[in-house]
Amino acid sequence: MDQLLFRYDVIAEDPETHARAGVLHTPHGDIETPIFMPVGTKATVKGIPWETVHDLGAQIVLSNTYHLAMRPGADLIAEMGGLHAFMNWHHPILTDSGGFQVFSHGDAVKLSNEGVRFIATDYDGSHVFWTPEDNMAIAQKLGSDICMQLDQCIGYPAERRDVERAMDLSSRWAERCYKAHTRPDQALFGIVQGGMHLDLRVRSLERLEEMGDFPGYGIGGYSVGEDHETMFESLEPLAAEYMPRTKPRYLMGVGNPTTLVRGVACGIDMFDCVLPTRTGRMGSAFSHEGRLNFRNARFAKDPGPIDPACTCPVCTGGYSRAHIRHMVTQHEMLGGILLSMHNIYFLLNLMREARAAIIEGRYGAFVRAWMDSPAANDY
Fold first, then answer.
1. 3 has pLDDT over 80
2. b/e code 224-259 from CB counts within 10 Å (16+ = b)
3. Binning pLDDT at 50, 70 and 90, where does residue 1 land?
4. pTM for this structure?
5. In the chain, N or C terminus with fewer CB closer than 10 Å?
């Protein structure tokens, strides 16, 4: 990796919490943190053109290595000029390792020190074997700005010995990924594992720091079945006390507004989740009143916008709650698209407001105001 292309500058730290504001420099643009990354799993944020995603405020998006490797294939994407050109998004991209999707195949997965064998039951039923080196080869063909190491993500609850075994395997794979990754215009992030056990997570982080100079760290293995309070018991000390100050911290797969607000207070810089688009397609919206379900009959005659306090193009564009509900209940695709747009904007704007509060030294008050408001009822 070319150190001149990737740098993380911390520009402000909140005096009361562990929150910080920064700038992550990448070859395709700077990213102001804290930031939420909309998920374009298969090289598209479902139903939303890229120019709209950008206009909503997205600075970086995430795509999925497993799905892109299966269809259309990493070789084809490389032939098309790489992922930026293929998906017509010319701003920063992060690709995950695909490990979470691989391990979601359950009994069709076989693990070894060498790699992971699985059956692609959600595609053609083919038998696939990935080593960490294979995974890095795919990531480098895709050409994202940031890629993630191959790791084993274990669900919750799990026996400590199983969590420790998964953490050990992830650490060994991290070292192999680090050695195999050679693309200078792409940053490889290590992933901290260890479940809900702080000591295992600290050990995982220490091993990553010993094996090389990763430019940033993902925090995996959360939001896998545990409640949020259980997550924060280990997440807060991990981020605030142990993770290096000069590198970005990315909490993987977490995306409801209140968890973002609390995560930033712990010192998290980056988030991603399918929640805003998935819940939008299901008829739900984030709002300053809390989560809204537009299948509810109370919206049938409501002429107001989704959220009167929101300035997204849907809320300011004349779409009423009654119209949104009609589209949702009649399975009109525009209803889900508009709710997805609103939800993405809501999280991006929340992070913009959080960043301003950090820079102004008032993030503690920001968190308290949020937690005391109806908006916190979002899950």
1. no
2. bebebeebbebbbbbbbeebeeebbbbbbbbbbbbb
3. confident
4. 0.97
5. C
Is 30 a known active-site residue? no
Q: What's the confidence (pLDDT) of residue 185?
A: 97
- Per-residue pLDDT of 205-246, as tens digits, reads 999 999 999 999 999 999 999 999 999 999 999 999 999 999
List the catalytic residue out of 14, 96, 269, 378.
96
Contact predicate 43/81, CB 8 Å: no
The active-site residue out of 14, 145, 269, 272 is: 272
Domain enclosing residue 261, as ranges: 11-280+342-376
Give strand pairing partners of 305. none
Is residue 272 flagged as an active site residue? yes
In the chain, the number of structural domains is 1
Residue 134 sits in a domain whose CATH number is 3.20.20.105
Answer yes or no: is 239 within a domain. yes
Whether 283 and 328 have beta carbons less than 8 Å apart is answered as yes
Determine the Cα–Cα distance for residues 338 and 327; give it in Å rounded to an integer: 10
